[in-house]
Amino acid sequence: MITIKDMAEMLGISTTTVSNVIHGKTSEVSQKTVERVEKLLEEYEYVPNNSARSLTQNCSKIIGVALKCRKDKYTNLIADPFFGELLGTLEAEIRAHGYFMMIYTSNEISEIIRNVLTWNVDGLILVGMLHDDFIRIKSRYKKPTLLIDSYAPREIMNYVNIGLEDEEGAYKMMHYLLEMGHRRIAFLADNMEGVDYIRYLGYQRALEEYGLEMQEKDLLIFHPGMVERESSLQELFYKSKDYTAFMCCSDYYAVLLMNYFMDRGIRIPEDLSITGFDNNMMSRIIRPSLTTVAQDVTKKGQLAVDYMLKMIQGIEFSEWDVKLPTEIVIRDSVRTIDLPADTEKEKTEDMESKSQGQ
């Protein structure tokens, strides 16, 4: 492979001039010289040695992205619409700023630590990590680290997180269902950790605001593993008759339930209303289209890269825990239920009483 020194000798110019042209620093190089160097680069199909350049600049120009996934939930994490959009945005933003992205996924935090910490990366973006996971990584990795969608306790360790108003989003959706007349509403998740738990708090807050008591039986846990999935769907199908609405923690589960229930004769929304969370592609193409909580996944990825680059550059910033807003997208999967007149009166009086109390 031709070297910068070879090209400098061939053109009768300095190696510094050739290097400046290669790296776009042409403000002090004549246009004629630039054209001569570029012609030679093209002729020999020269490829810069980024590894050598990184060593001289003490940086790799690589940002690592590590995702922890549940073994019982994903055989291919990136096939999930949420993670697909997030990773696509991260890669595009990282590349646009002249960096490269390395990615590692595993359901074992020890495996992530063992492999990712050997990388020569300038910073690390962590997705799907619980606070114990973050503590283990941060105790061994001292370069800039950023979390996406984490609810690690702030008092344990300072961190930068790009997240979402999960509790508020779930509250808005539950409030909407209650306004539509629903009172028997199940909350569906696959765990009670992280974002699912925070969304559950929003569900509870709306119930309390309406003076309704939270029933433990209304918290439904879906088991997504290939072995348990069918039995879990069957159980939800049998329990569906006890409710007028299912509030799901993701569009994926909402669409899964809609297809399963409709295949077995349940009409959506005539017999059962269903809502999701994310507003991904599936929510728009399912029929009836899904009422859901929208979040801007692209914006989340863009902010994550922006904050990571600031951390790498040592730039100070005041906001360490960013929470992006949510909004309700009303489509066709929820129907209105007419409440008895006395129930509606009680609701109005209760709401007025709460308002006066504030």
Strand content: 15-25%
Query: How would you spell out the order of helices and strands?
Result: HHHHEHEHEHEEHEHEHEHEHEHEEH
Order of strands side by side in the largest beta sheet?
Answer: 2-1-3-4-5-11
Radius of gyration of CA atoms, rounded to a whole number: 27 Å
How far apart are the termini?
75 Å
Tally of strands: 12
**Shape designation:** elongated
Number of helices: 14
Q: Label the structural class.
A: alpha/beta
- Unreliable spans are none
Helix percent reads: 40-55%
Summarize model confidence as the mean pLDDT.
88
How would you describe what is shown here?
Helices cover 45% and strands 16% of the residues. The protein is built from 14 helices and 12 strands. The strands form 2 sheets. The protein has a 6-stranded parallel β-sheet, sandwiched between helices. The chain has a 6-stranded mixed β-sheet with strand order 7-6-8-9-10-12, with helices on both faces. Strand 3, helix 7 and strand 4 form a beta-alpha-beta unit. Helix 8 runs parallel beside helix 9. The N and C termini lie far apart (75 Å). The mean pLDDT is 88.
